[in-house]
Design a protein that fits this description.
heterodimer, A: 263 residues, mainly alpha, 12 helices, 77% helix, 0% strand, B: 310 residues, 2 domains, elongated
Chain lengths: 263, 310
C-alpha cells in the first residue's frame, strides 16, 4: 500500500466518522456506511469488484449500527475502512468466504480502535465549552464557529487521522512479511466464515430492537422471513412487497382520521 | 432598535428574520451539528453556531446578543437530521422574543422539551428504519450485477433526500412553531407514517435475516447403505442436522439465533461488543465440532450422492 493510498484511506476514515467536517449526513451516514466505504476503498485500490465482495456482508453485519443518544456502539467508519483494506491487502488468492472472514477480523480491530479514539475526542472536546462561553459572553455571533468547527474538528481530525495512519502503516509493514493466504490454516478461515455468517444476526437483532414496538409485530418479521425461505423472493422483491404494504397501511389507516377532520 | 430598521420592516413594524439568514442557520446545522460533541453540552456549541446568524439579525445590542448566545450554548441533543425542526422552532421563538412576544424562559424550556420527542422520532424512524431500508435496496442493486451502482445510488439519494427533508422540517418548525409540530403529531399523520415505516422495516429485516444470516450445526452421520437394486454397498448420509432442521422449517437456526440476539440486546441489555464476543465463542465451538466430527466427510458424501442422482 503506497503512502498516498494510506493517506486517502485515513482521510476517509476521518470524513466518515461522527461529526466530521462534512456533517453527519454526508459523513457518518453516507461515507461511513460499509456499502459506501468499501466502494471508496475499492476505488483507492483500483479493485472495486473485490472490495464490494466484502462490503456487502460487512454492511449486513453493521446494518443495525446506529447511534442513539450519542453513545457509539461501534465505530463503523474505522471498522469498515480498515476491514475492507485488510481484506484487499491480506486476502490475495483467497476465495470469497475467506476474504469476508479476513475483513471481519480487521473490521473488529478497526472498530475497537475507533471506539477508543471516539471516547478520547469526546473527552477532549469538553474544554471547548469554556471557549464557547467566552465568545457567547462577548455576544460575538461571528465567531461561534471557532469552538465548534475549528477547534472541535482540529481535535477530531488529529484524533482520527493519526491513529488511522499508524494502523494502516502497521498493516502495510505486516503485509510484506508473509504470504498470508498460505499462512492461515484452514480451520481459522472456517471459523471466520462461521463467525461472519452469525455476525449478521447482530445487525438484525439491533434493528429489531427499534422495530419490535409490540410483541406481536414479530409475526410481520416472520412474514418477511418466509417471503425468502418459502416464496423464494429476491431482496428487491421483498422490498417491493414491503413498500406496497406500507403504502396500503398508510392510506387505509388515514380514512377515519380524515373524515373526523372534515366533519 | 433604530428607527431606520423599523421603517424598513413591514407595515406593522414586526421584525422578521431574513430568508437568507434562515438558510445560513440551517446549513450551519446541517454540516456542523456534530463537530464538537461532548458529554457536557452535547450539541450545544453547534446549536449556538446555527443560531448565531439569526441572533445577529434580530438583536442590536451586544448585551442582547450575548444573552441569546448564552441560552443556546447550553445542553442540547437530538437526532440532528430530523432534529432540524428544533432549530426552526427556536428561530421562530427568537423572532417572537425580539418582538416582545415571547420570553427567554419560554425559549429555554421549549428547547429542553424538544430533545426527547425529536430524538425518539429521528432515531427510530430516520436512522433506525429509513437508512437500513435504503441501504438494503442499494445492496440489492449491487448484487444484481453492477456492483458499483449500489453505493453510487446511495451516495446521491441519501444525502440529497435527507437535506431536502431536513430543510422542510426546519421551515415547518419556523413557520408552524411548536403548535405546528404538536398538530402534526396530534393529527395522527406521524403515527401512521411511523407505523407504515415500521411495517416496511420489519418485512425487510425479516427478508434480510433469511438471506444473510447463516448458522448451521455441522454434525452428521455417514453409514454404509445396501442398495438392493444393484446389490452393492454405498456410503450415504444417514443423518445431517441441517437437512433435518431445514426440512422442518427452512433456516430455523438463523431465525432462532437472530431472535435470541435481539432478546440479549433488548431485554438483557447486553452490549454489542459482548454479543460479538459470544458469537466468536459460538463460532469457535462450531468450528471445533465441524473438525472433530469430520463433517467435511459428510458434506463430501452428500455432494457425491447429489452428483450421482443428477
Amino acid at each position: 500500500m503506497s503512502v498516498l493510498q494510506m493517506f486517502l484511506i485515513a482521510l476517509f476514515i476521518y470524513l466518515g466518522s461522527i461529526g466530521s467536517i462534512v456533517g453527519n449526513t454526508i459523513g457518518w451516514y453516507t461515507l461511513g456506511r460499509p456499502l459506501v466505504a468499501s466502494f471508496v476503498v475499492g476505488l483507492i485500490f483500483g479493485d472495486v469488484q473485490d472490495a464490494m465482495i466484502v462490503g456487502i456482508p460487512l454492511q449486513v453485519m453493521y446494518l443495525g449500527n446506529v447511534t442513539p443518544g450519542g453513545a457509539v456502539a461501534w465505530d463503523l467508519s474505522y471498522a469498515t475502512y480498515i476491514g475492507t483494506t485488510g481484506a484487499l491487502l491480506f486476502g490475495q488468492g483467497m476465495d470469497a468466504t475467506a476474504l469476508i472472514g479476513v475483513a471481519t477480523v480487521f473490521a473488529g480491530i478497526g472498530g475497537l480502535v475507533g471506539q477508543l479514539v471516539w471516547n478520547v475526542t469526546y473527552a477532549l472536546n469538553i474544554p471547548l465549552n469554556r471557549v464557547a462561553a467566552k465568545y457567547a459572553e462577548a455576544g460575538d455571533t461571528k465567531r461561534m464557529y471557532v469552538p465548534n468547527v475549528v477547534l472541535g474538528q482540529t481535535i477530531g481530525f488529529i484524533g482520527r487521522f493519526v491513529p488511522a495512519m499508524l494502523i494502516l502503516g502497521g498493516m502495510t509493514a505486516a503485509s510484506t512479511q508473509a504470504d498470508f493466504a498460505s499462512f492461515i490454516p484452514p480451520y481459522i478461515t472456517t471459523c471466520l466464515t462461521i463467525f461472519g455468517g452469525m455476525m449478521a444476526a447482530l445487525g438484525m437483532g439491533i434493528l429489531l430492537s427499534f422495530l419490535l414496538k409490540k410483541k406481536w409485530y414479530v409475526v410481520i418479521f416472520l412474514a418477511g422471513f418466509i417471503l425468502v425461505t418459502y416464496f423464494k423472493l429476491s431482496m428487491m422483491g421483498c422490498a417491493v412487497v414491503a413498500t406496497i404494504l406500507a403504502v396500503t397501511y398508510y392510506e387505509v389507516s388515514a380514512k377515519p382520521a380524515q373524515s373526523e377532520k372534515e366533519a | 432598535m433604530s428607527e431606520e430598521i423599523q421603517a424598513s420592516e413591514e407595515a406593522a413594524g414586526y421584525l422578521k428574520i431574513h430568508p437568507e439568514t434562515l438558510k445560513r442557520a440551517f446549513w450551519n446545522w446541517f454540516f456542523w451539528n456534530g463537530c464538537s460533541q461532548q458529554a457536557e453540552s452535547m450539541q450545544g456549541m453547534a446549536f449556538a453556531q446555527s443560531m448565531a446568524p439569526i441572533i445577529d439579525d434580530l438583536y442590536e445590542s451586544k448585551e442582547d446578543k450575548a444573552a441569546a448566545l448564552k441560552r443556546h450554548v447550553s445542553l442540547f441533543n437530538t437526532e440532528p437530521q430530523v432534529g432540524s425542526i428544533c432549530n426552526g422552532i427556536v428561530s421562530g421563538l427568537e423572532e417572537a422574543n425580539a418582538n416582545g412576544a415571547c420570553t427567554p424562559e419560554v425559549i429555554e424550556s421549549v428547547k429542553v422539551a424538544l430533545i426527547g420527542p425529536t430524538s425518539a422520532i429521528g432515531d427510530s424512524l430516520w436512522v433506525g428504519t429509513i437508512i437500513p431500508i435504503l441501504l438494503t435496496i442499494c445492496m440489492t442493486i449491487s448484487q444484481s450485477g453492477v456492483s458499483w451502482l449500489g453505493p453510487i445510488v446511495y451516495m446521491v439519494v441519501y444525502p440529497v433526500g435527507t437535506a431536502i427533508v431536513s430543510w422542510k422540517l426546519f421551515q415547518l418548525g419556523y413557520k408552524g412553531g411548536l403548535e405546528g409540530m404538536q398538530s402534526l403529531m396530534a393529527s395522527g399523520k406521524l403515527d401512521r407514517l411511523t407505523n407504515a415505516m415500521v411495517l416496511m422495516g420489519l418485512i425487510v429485516v425479516g427478508a434480510l435475516t433469511a438471506s444473510y444470516v447463516t448458522c448451521t450445526i455441522p454434525f452428521g452421520i455417514v453409514g454404509d447403505v445396501f442398495d438392493a437394486t444393484t446389490g452393492t454397498t454405498t456410503q450415504a448420509v444417514i443423518f445431517d442436522t441441517n437437512t433435518m432442521l431445514d426440512g422442518f422449517f427452512p433456516k430455523l437456526l438463523p431465525l432462532l439465533l437472530t431472535l435470541w440476539i435481539y432478546h440479549l440486546y433488548t431485554h438483557k441489555k447486553w452490549s454489542p461488543l459482548a454479543i460479538m464476543g459470544l458469537i466468536l465463542v459460538l463460532a469457535i465451538v462450531l468450528t471445533a465440532i465441524q473438525y472433530l466430527t469430520g463433517y467435511a466427510n459428510v458434506q463430501a458424501v452428500a455432494a457425491a450422492a447429489a452428483a450421482a442422482a443428477a
